Amino acid sequence: MIQGQAAKAATQDKVAQKERHRHSTDGTRCPVCGAEIDSRFEICPECGGKLVNYCTFCGADMDRSDTECPECGMPAGGVKCPKCGTLNHRSFCSACNEPLTRAAQKAIQKALADPKVQQAAEMCSRLAELEAELEAAGADISEDSSEEGNEPLSEGARRMMEIMGKVKPGMPEHAKPAQPAPADPKPVSAKRDVAKIKEEYRRTVRDVNKILDEMLPPAGSTPQEQRNFFSARKVAVETTIRQKVKVPIEWICNYCGCHHNNPSECAEPQLGGTWVYIEKVETTTVREYKYE
């Protein structure tokens, strides 16, 4: 059921994306299919046709007649992702984020070695631990968020906190497996301990927000390099969903009130009966991708 809902949500997202493309047009027509597009588009959102005279993978100049880029060698018609089969015109797969070019592989290696990624991930991991300790102590850090000098946690840091304990801190999906969730924090009883935890939390929030603000592509990066920079820092987040469902375990017939595994075991099933259900918890893991 949950997988069906996820597929439905994915379909709705694609429909919504097409609607956004339709609303972001300026009257230009795609030379391939004739669809109305924005003149800034590199690829037609309707037919996938190329709209520019340069390589969408690396940015090098290309003639309309070129079948492949003279610089990086990538085909002008795009390349299919070996992992999911999606046709792409850029270095990372638009569907599953699989690296498709040498430039993409290099961007991943740079991301793995980026000290800011490591620092931010470690700090967000610590924030998650501090929040758990405050919750165990019955304290709420949000009570102090409006006070002067207390910096709110940025959305980027909040997203990174969501992945802590689910993937190795700072490691993109391409490189590292998931690690076990951290153990439950020890209960905190003393009021002065809570105060110390809050102070460490506020200090860590300031530090991680600063690092995330600095986590930008190098100055002078081309649009292609900027895309690779952020794509290499895309992390798979696994969310476990638990849902109660009713499972039939036996059928009580109206004929004699006997308990059967199913109606076919009854001598007079046409007289009807009643199913007996129990509640069962089903667990499903949904994987989505988020940017750090």
Q: Which sequence of strands runs across the widest sheet?
A: 6-5-7
Strand content: 15-25%
- Which descriptor suits the 3D outline? flat
Number of DSSP strand runs: 7
Number of domains: 3
Tell me what you see in this structure.
The structure is a single chain. By secondary structure, this protein is an alpha+beta fold. The chain has three domains: 22-110, no CATH class; 115-214, no CATH class; 236-291, no CATH class. Helix content is 34%, strand content 17%. It has six helices and seven strands. It has helices at 2-23, 102-113, 115-136, 155-163, 191-214, 223-231, and strands at residues 28-29, 36-37, 79-80, 87-88, 234-253, 259-260, 273-291. Strands 6-5-7 form a three-stranded antiparallel sheet. Helix 2 packs across helix 6 (223-231), helix 3 (115-136) crosses helix 4 and helix 3 (115-136) runs antiparallel to helix 5. It is flat.
Write the layout of secondary structure elements.
Blueprint: H1 2-23, E1 28-29, E2 36-37, E3 79-80, E4 87-88, H2 102-113, H3 115-136, H4 155-163, H5 191-214, H6 223-231, E5 234-253, E6 259-260, E7 273-291
Antiparallel strand pairs: 1-2, 3-4, 5-6, 5-7
Helix pairs in contact: 2-6, 3-4, 3-5
